[in-house]
């Protein structure tokens, strides 16, 4: 008895009369290189009942014939098509051939509940990491999102494109994945709908790229698919196979600590020294290093604030919390330190604002623990643990930024602290102004910022993806001291993983040991 349909695995050159029943797993348009507003081809990934996948293409001359006949996720009977070798460095399937639609190709919608709807072919992250050159085949990976960078933008061919890097971890290992353009918005929306904590993320049809001699992943425009906490059996297996030990899993940590400069570089060689008197009297906005003593806490001031999982502050509203960054109401918040301290030196006094990462380092206690003990009391109700700060002498890297805000209240935002005795001693021995040479770019618009040269991770991703002709990635809106290099970039004003409020601080990573097994 002649079978009704051929298996996709049977498709090969040299034969005609193929007839298949397949689901369109993925469907996208490829724009013309020279005319981006015009479609060059219609591409798709097809899967049959056995789970075998094959790529299919519709050339631009036939686009009008098949565009309205095909929909992603639907099942079709297909016949009268041509077969060609599958080549190139962005192959969506392992099948050696691809389907090429012709004018005579027949497409008929049908039922096909037995055909897989997601069609993932998972690749272990350890296998991804073994690659030493760019891989020609796109891969599917599934794992916990164990870190994420701030959202950035870079300029290429005069256009501003968003970018974010996240870390994905399964039982075999971990690697980084870069998302560009519309995929950053997609991730933000999916994260906003997730239930909190470290989500499981599926990245389907991702490109393996090599940068800095390491294999990483990145999206392929219009092709890659991203799902958060997908309801699949493999996600349950990931949950059982990866444990986190002492690592905080209540939110996704920020990555990027590798590019953070050393304490010596930050406090001794990069920024000017100032006394408190000089800090108050200077007309120059910028970042300065001050040696001062903490005299105590400012009376009747809040010492913590409620934050969304995107790390921005939230305000109580309608029985929930409203986050401006996510532009929605949220029902969970995380307390984070924001402590105003009185400081003094031999020349004057001042008020510094110390944020979550530095406060945790100084107290060796997370904010949530102290808020719980204090029963959420805030202004004026300081925990006894704060007493250990009084009389403490240390270096403060502070920002003075009076010209950009009409709300300057005379206090200074602390960007980093250092109580290392050796560094403090070296600070006193070094000359008066440890000011690095600075570049200035004339006539830059006010919304233009620059990339710090230390941000090699983002720069490498951009170069690996688009080559050296692309402008360097921009500093995030929350990293306001990245202003001394010469590449202009636009500042990101809103977004899920960007800290732009004056009361938000960059997150300090405190990784625990990650157990895999």
TrEMBL record:
It comes from the Eukaryota. Signal peptide: none annotated. One of its GO terms (biological process) is telomere maintenance via telomerase. This is Replication factor-A carboxy-terminal domain protein. Residues 5-110 form the Replication protein A 70 kDa DNA-binding subunit B/D first OB fold domain. Belongs to the replication factor A protein 1 family. GO terms for cellular component: DNA replication factor A complex.
């Amino acid at each position: 008895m002649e079978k009704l349909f051929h298996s996709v695995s049977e498709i090969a050159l040299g034969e005609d009369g193929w007839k298949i029943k397949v689901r369109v797993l993925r469907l996208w348009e490829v724009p013309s290189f020279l005319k981006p507003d015009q479609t060059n081809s219609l591409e798709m990934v097809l899967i049959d009942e056995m789970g075998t996948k094959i790529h299919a293409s519709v050339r631009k001359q036939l686009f009008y014939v098949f565009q309205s006949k095909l929909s992603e996720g639907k099942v079709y009977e297909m016949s009268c098509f041509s077969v060609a070798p599958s080549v190139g460095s962005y192959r969506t399937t392992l099948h050696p051939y691809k389907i090429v639609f012709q004018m005579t190709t027949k497409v008929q919608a049908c039922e096909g509940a037995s055909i897989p709807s997601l069609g993932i072919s998972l690749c272990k992250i350890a296998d991804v990491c073994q690659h030493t050159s760019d891989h020609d085949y796109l891969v599917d990976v599934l794992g916990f999102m164990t870190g994420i960078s701030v959202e950035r933008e870079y300029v290429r061919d005069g256009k501003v494109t968003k970018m974010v890097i996240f870390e994905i971890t399964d039982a075999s290992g971990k690697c980084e994945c870069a998302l560009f353009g519309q995929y950053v918005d997609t991730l933000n929306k999916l994260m906003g709908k997730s239930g909190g904590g470290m989500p499981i993320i599926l990245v389907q049809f991702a490109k393996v790229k090599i940068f800095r001699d390491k294999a990483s992943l990145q999206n392929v425009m219009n092709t890659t698919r991203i799902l958060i906490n997908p309801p699949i059996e493999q996600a349950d297996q990931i949950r059982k196979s990866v444990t986190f030990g002492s690592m905080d899993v209540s939110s996704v940590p920020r990555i990027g600590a590798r590019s953070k400069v050393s304490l010596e570089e930050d406090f001794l060689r990069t920024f000017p020294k100032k006394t408190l008197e000089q800090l108050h009297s200077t007309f120059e906005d910028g970042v300065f290093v001050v040696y001062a003593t903490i005299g105590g806490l400012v009376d009747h001031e809040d010492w913590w604030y409620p934050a969304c999982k995107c790390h921005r502050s939230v305000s109580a509203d309608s029985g929930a919390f409203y986050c401006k960054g996510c532009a929605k109401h949220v029902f969970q918040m995380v307390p984070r330190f924001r402590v105003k301290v009185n400081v003094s030196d031999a020349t004057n006094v001042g008020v510094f604002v110390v944020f979550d990462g530095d406060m945790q380092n100084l107290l060796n206690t997370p904010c949530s623990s102290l808020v719980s003990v204090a029963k959420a009391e805030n202004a004026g109700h300081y925990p006894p643990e704060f007493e250990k700060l009084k009389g403490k002498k240390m270096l403060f890297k502070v920002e003075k930024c009076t010209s950009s805000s009409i709300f300057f209240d005379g206090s200074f935002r602390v960007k980093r602290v250092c109580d290392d005795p050796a560094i403090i001693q070296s600070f006193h021995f070094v000359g008066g102004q440890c000011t690095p040479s600075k570049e200035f770019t004339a006539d830059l618009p006010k919304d233009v910022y620059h990339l710090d040269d230390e941000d090699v991770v983002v720069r490498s991703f951009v170069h690996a993806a688009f080559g050296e002709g692309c402008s360097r990635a921009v500093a995030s809106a929350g990293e306001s001291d990245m202003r001394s290099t010469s590449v202009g970039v636009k500042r990101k004003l809103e977004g899920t993983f960007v800290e732009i409020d004056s009361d938000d601080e960059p997150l300090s990573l405190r990784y625990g040991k990650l157990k895999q097994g």
